[in-house]
């Protein structure tokens, strides 16, 4: 059995973002229950030279919409990166999931050899679609998703692996 580029991208990104949305909801409830200023969590970092939780959400959603768009050969919408509250960050995730759900398998399947060029600080980097998905987009997506989870867990939000995997409700 083979797996298509669509199956390896859009549903995977949607699931990760949906799980992250649930995690942020738990963090928001935790802050309310413990009477913690929400900015203490949305602005939290694992280490001073790392980006805060809010920025991790900006990057993970940008990565997800950019991945699908690049594989489909379309332009991704631009977000202003101004969201800082839990409600705003959750809404950004919802907006990104809705965007991802607009893609069809026909738009992405067959993109294995599509040339994807990323403009990086050190210059342009060129990938095939498959290399981009497997060696850049998904690892980068999971890095920022995991970092967001870790920031919240480090700050006392009661989360576990099943929350990260989206399996708390038997999914």
**Helicity level, as a percent range?**
55-70%
**CATH class placement:** Mainly Alpha
Radius of gyration: 16 Å
Structural class computed from helices and strand pairing: mainly alpha
For the report, how would you describe the main beta sheet? Answer: 2 strands, antiparallel
Biggest β-sheet: strands ordered side by side in the sheet? 1-2
**Quick one: CATH superfamily?**
dinb family like domain
Whole-number total of structural domains:
1
Tell me, rounded to a whole number, the average pLDDT. Answer: 96
Calculate the terminal CA-CA distance, rounded to whole Å. 23 Å
Query: What are the segments in which pLDDT stays under 50 over at least 5 consecutive residues?
Result: none
Which architecture per CATH?
Up-down Bundle
Count every helix, treating DSSP H or I runs of 4 or more residues as helices. 7
How do the SSEs run, as a string of H and E? HHHHHEEHH
Shape: globular
Strand proportion, as a percent range, falls in 5-15%
Tell me the number of strands.
2
What is the CATH third-level topology name?
Answer: Four Helix Bundle (Hemerythrin (Met), subunit A)
Descriptive overview:
The protein is mainly α and 171 residues long. It has a single domain, classed as Up-down Bundle (Four Helix Bundle (Hemerythrin (Met), subunit A)), CATH 1.20.120.450. It is 61% helix and 7% strand. It contains seven helices and two strands, in the order αααααββαα. Strands 1-2 form a two-stranded antiparallel ribbon. A hairpin with a 2-residue loop joins strand 1 and strand 2 (123-128). The protein starts with a helix and ends in a 6-residue tail after the last helix. The model has no long low-confidence stretch (mean pLDDT 96).
């Amino acid at each position: 059995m083979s797996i298509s580029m669509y199956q390896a991208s859009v549903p995977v990104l949607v699931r990760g973002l949906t799980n992250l949305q649930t995690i942020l909801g738990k963090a928001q409830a935790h802050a309310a229950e413990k009477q913690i200023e929400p900015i203490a969590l949305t602005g939290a970092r694992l280490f001073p030279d790392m980006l805060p939780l809010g920025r991790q959400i900006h990057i993970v959603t940008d990565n997800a919409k950019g991945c699908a768009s690049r594989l489909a050969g379309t332009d991704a919408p631009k977000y202003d990166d101004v969201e800082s509250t839990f409600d705003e960050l959750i809404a950004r995730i919802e907006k990104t999931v809705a965007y991802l759900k607009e893609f069809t398998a026909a738009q992405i399947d067959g993109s294995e050899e599509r040339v994807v060029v990323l403009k990086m600080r050190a210059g342009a980097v060129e990938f095939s679609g498959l290399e981009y998905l497997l060696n850049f987009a998904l690892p980068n997506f999971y890095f920022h998703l995991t970092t967001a989870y870790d920031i919240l867990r480090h700050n006392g939000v009661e989360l576990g692996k099943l929350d990260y995997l989206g399996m708390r409700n038997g999914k």
